[in-house]
Q: What sequence folds into this?
């Protein structure tokens, strides 16, 4: 009986040994996933490549000088050539004051002949309407200075500014003011994507209203400014609305896509 029990125990031990010997081995990662199945979802979430974040869209026009914050690879504007407005609310106030003060100074020196009226059109709002947004002025040559910038003590730069340079060097300032402060209903928000600058002779508002003047589109950018140009040789006097103009709007005229009056000229009695 004892030998029989011994034989059974021996066979049992051999069977267990064989079972262990032929048990398939699992990779460590698979074994871990079996024992920690409750963490599998978390682990997969960690290793999933995050999706790209979509840029948030800003609504409204914001205050003067406000703009969506974004990183730009372009180099900052040369402060000696451009009156720039930083991208935060209220940043344009001092710049606007400097431009207006410079306008007053140059106006006393040169008067109407150095002045240019400025209009803005938003094709996305109404392609036929041109809004008067103010005046620019530039330092011009004088006989007393022998028409030479080097002899002109009132000159900051080395070249006399053109009408286009007087506008392009203040383009950002003019457009920011027009769309955020002067007429956001027609020039701001969704209508600000393709704003255009147009010009007319200085102090010609009445002639423009009477369809006697064709507006001229201002082409180019600050990159068009010549070497030797200085922004202190130009100024900007912004249009300001008072009373009902704030709601109903001020001076604007109708022109075709080339700035030509669409109706005959007339006189005001």
A:
């Amino acid at each position: 009986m004892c030998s029989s029990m011994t034989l059974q125990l021996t066979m049992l031990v051999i069977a267990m040994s064989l079972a262990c010997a032929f048990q398939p081995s699992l990779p460590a990662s698979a074994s871990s996933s079996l024992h920690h199945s409750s963490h599998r979802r978390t682990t997969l979430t960690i290793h999933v490549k995050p999706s790209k974040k979509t840029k948030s869209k800003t609504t409204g026009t914001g205050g003067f000088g406000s703009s969506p914050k974004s990183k730009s690879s372009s180099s900052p504007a040369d402060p000696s050539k451009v009156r720039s407005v930083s991208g935060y609310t209220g940043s344009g106030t001092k710049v606007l004051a400097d431009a207006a003060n410079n306008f007053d100074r140059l106006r006393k020196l040169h008067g109407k002949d150095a002045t240019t009226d400025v209009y803005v059109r938003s094709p996305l709002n109404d392609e036929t309407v041109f809004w008067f947004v103010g005046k620019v002025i530039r330092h011009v040559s004088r006989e007393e200075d022998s028409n030479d910038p080097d002899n002109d003590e009132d000159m900051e730069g080395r070249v006399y500014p053109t009408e286009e340079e007087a506008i392009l060097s203040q383009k950002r300032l003019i457009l920011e003011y027009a769309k955020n402060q002067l007429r956001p209903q027609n020039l701001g928000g969704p209508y600000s994507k393709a704003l255009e600058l147009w010009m007319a002779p200085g102090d010609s508002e009445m002639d423009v209203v009477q369809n006697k003047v064709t507006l001229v589109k201002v082409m180019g950018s600050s990159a068009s400014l010549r070497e030797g140009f200085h922004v202190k040789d130009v100024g900007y006097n912004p249009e300001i609305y008072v009373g009902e103009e704030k709601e109903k709007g001020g001076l604007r005229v109708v022109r075709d896509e080339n700035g030509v009056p669409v109706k005959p000229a007339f006189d005001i009695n």
Observations:
- The chain has nine helices and six strands.
- The two ends are 141 Å apart (CA to CA).
- Residues 2-21 form the longest helix (20 residues).
